[in-house]
Amino acid sequence: MRRLTFRLGLVLLGLAFAVALTTLVWTPWPVEDMSGGRLAGPSWAHWAGTDRLGRDSLSQVMIGARIALMVGLGATLVGGLIGTVAGVLAGFAQRGLDDALAAALDILIAFPTLLLAMLVVAASETASLGTAILAIGLAMSAIIARLVRVVSKRVLAQDYVTAARCCGAGWLRIVLTHVLPNIAPTLLVALALQFGLAVIAEASLSYLGLGAPPPNASWGQLLQQAQATVYTAPLGVLVPGGALVLLVLAINFVADGLRDLLDDSAEVRE
Amino acid sequence: MSHETLAPPAMRTLFGIGLLALTLSVAPSALLAETDPAAVLRIGSLYEPQNLDNTAGAGQGINEAFNDNVYEALFRLTDAGTVEPVLAASHEVSEDGLTHTFTLKDGVTFHSGDPLTAADVKYSIERVVAEASKSSRKRSLANIAGIETPDDKTVVVTLTSKSISLPYNLSYVWVVNDAAGDITAKEDGTGPYRLEDWARGTALSLTTFDGYWGEKPANGGAVFSYFSEAAALNNALLTDAVDIITSVQSPDALSMFADTSAFTIAEGKSTTKQLLAWNDRVAPFDNVKVRKALARAVDDKKLLEAIWGDRGTLIGSFVPPTDPWYVDLTGVDPYDPESAKALLAEAGLADGFTFTLDTPNYDPHPITAEFVKAELAKIGVTVNINIITPNEWYEKIYQKHDFQATLQEHVNHRDIVFYGNPDFYWGYNNPEVTKLIEEAEASDTEAQQTEKLTEANRIIAEDAASNWFFLYPQIVVSTVKVTGYPVNGLNAQFFLRGIQKAS
């Protein structure tokens, strides 16, 4: 069963990437083409119908996949980098400093990711793809940092690390040869799960108008615009909503599968 | 966010005006014959008042529930847009136009039983202009120099400058009993209804007042039920939990009420205008040719259809048809991309330019912004859309004037005055218009005022001061059982007294 979902996740994720890359060179209709008529139903010309301005919904949802993946990956990268560096530093820190860092991370985590991201967007002049990536990434970094801190502390307490220290190994060497390789599986699984959450966070931000500005057809923005016409043109909500669900599901399947493959402790837990 | 700041100017209303029908009735149904005079109307609304005092920041919901229902004023703004006397029996203006003498109607009592006196009227006007008052109408009454009450039935208002709008402006001044004290949670007015109960967060119920001086209402009272979500409100009407919805916000919800044997859809003219305001202070928007070019490049009709289906009205200026100085100006800068390009070239911008459009983050602004972006791209103008929250809009644009162009909806009736104020956020500064608007206020007759404001209206349209897209429709949906409700809902008022419900 696990294997099946892992494969399904990989296929869906691959499909999403393929669609996202395709939109760089081709979409069924140019997004600015408004010739489709108001809220037209599905047809051969417009598979998923059109929006209020007469634009092709399918083209917009395809571009939405690109935005979702870009922001999702970008945020995971930012969050992963900052989180790992902060987490490893906290792992090395002793007593007072360690307590302070742990408390700071706990406080950051107490803020909902979305709220933290909204604060970052509000602090910057204008909303853009960049601010969305930064905002979600920063909010994510606290979660990653806390995880990395705990796991690296566990690694640092191992006898072979003590042995390495006795042999005169510096902290950088210990991080590179012992800590990072040992925390990598756990980190990768956590990042995969966070990737899925980042995709949702991006949709939420742009639903609130705080994500990538139009005409970047983010799924959250498509949902927001289709909300006013949900009774007469439910497809406008179902298509981007369905795409969002599928992508996040795929990412979670992949994350689960990765955990089974990589994380030894997962077997112990189950 | 609906924008409501400065008070509109007004027209002079002397008593020569015949009493226009209070409400424009919706097509009467056959059921009308069986109306029940004791029926309690169940009204669904999205606008719950924050408190019960219109000078304490209660929001538009209090006007909807209380204006002319619970509180009356010296004058009333009818649903057709005219001003007529209510508690004033006569109104005389001195030769110099600076002294207005009002005589009050006899036999009027407050819900508490106290008789109406001139002191109550003085108290009521002072309440609105007081330091602590949060009334958006405060500014329009700022030219009141003093209020005298020579006897119980006479109120003399002296002004610092002539104001033909005084009766109109007084239509917002509730006459409150001067012994009432704090009215944020109770009321003491003279209207045909009194407050029965207010369950905060849910409902406000009104019942008829037996001691009312005028004609008895056609119903036995009303319950306003408040909803925070439009879909829930629509469902309430579908499931017969309410009789009327005071305003429908999307044309697509109307398909739920397509069954004409069960529901009536009334479309009136609102005063809500959607517009693209340029910052007329900054280049290139300080150039009339550029503004005209941009106005001609956007197909307003297509935009209106996208947002409101086949409803709503195109306007060529800022003035809605319910303002007395309305003229059809849609032909001034009609949709014509070719002449738009030519005008841009004349302005030295043949290669186009780029600007940022600050767009409020709620419907229909983002989709409008995308439409504008696509339209202007066709004449070589690039639009960067910047989505902002209502609070940011207020600070960045309304207060700091730090913008190039923005989208907004303006809800007020008679608000062309904004174009006479060079310090207003859009910074339109045409001394001729400012002068016309000032002169209109100092007019001796309504005809003179209308003439001046019609002229001002024409000039702002010729100048393409802003790009006015369309006027929202005002849509009221009810079960077929109820008739006689106001369809225009000017300034958010919802007159109850004429509404009939079949038994």
What does this structure look like?
The complex is a heterodimer of chains A (270) and B (503). Chain A is an all-alpha fold. Chain A has a single domain, classed as MetI-like (MetI-like fold, Orthogonal Bundle), CATH 1.10.3720. Chain A contains ten helices and no strands. Chain A has helices at 2-25, 57-92, 95-110, 113-123, 129-156, 159-166, 171-207, 219-227, 235-262, 264-269. Chain A starts with a helix and ends with a helix. The model of chain A is unreliable at 266-270 (pLDDT under 50). Chain B is α+β, with helices and mostly antiparallel strands. Chain B folds into three domains: 3-70 and 191-268 and 474-501, D-Maltodextrin-Binding Protein, domain 2; 75-170, Dipeptide-binding Protein, Domain 1 (Dipeptide-binding Protein, domain 1, Alpha-Beta Complex), CATH 3.90.76; 273-471, Dipeptide-binding Protein, Domain 3 (Dipeptide-binding Protein, domain 3). Chain B is built from eleven helices and 19 strands. Chain B has helices spanning 60-66, 118-129, 166-170, 230-238, 288-297, 300-308, 337-346, 365-377, 390-399, 431-441, 446-462, and strands spanning 40-45, 75-77, 83-85, 88-93, 99-104, 144-151, 154-159, 193-199, 203-208, 221-226, 244-245, 263-278, 313-314, 354-360, 382-388, 405-410, 467-479, 482-483, 500-501. In chain B, the strands form four sheets. In chain B, strands 1, 8, 9, 10, 11, 12, 13, 14, 15, 16 and 17 form an eleven-stranded mixed β-sheet that branches. In chain B, strands 4-5-7-6 form a four-stranded antiparallel β-sheet, covered by helices on one side. A two-stranded antiparallel ribbon of chain B has the order 2-3. In chain B, strand 14 (354-360), helix 8 and strand 15 (382-388) form a beta-alpha-beta unit. In chain B, helix 5 (288-297) packs antiparallel against helix 7. The longest helix of chain B is centred in the last third of the chain and has 17 residues, at 446-462. The A-B interface holds A 32, 34, 38-39, 51-54, 126-127, 208-210, 213-215, 221, 224-225, 227-233 and B 231, 249-250, 252-253, 255-256, 302, 305-307, 309, 359, 361-364, 366-367, 369-371, 373-374, 377, 384-389.
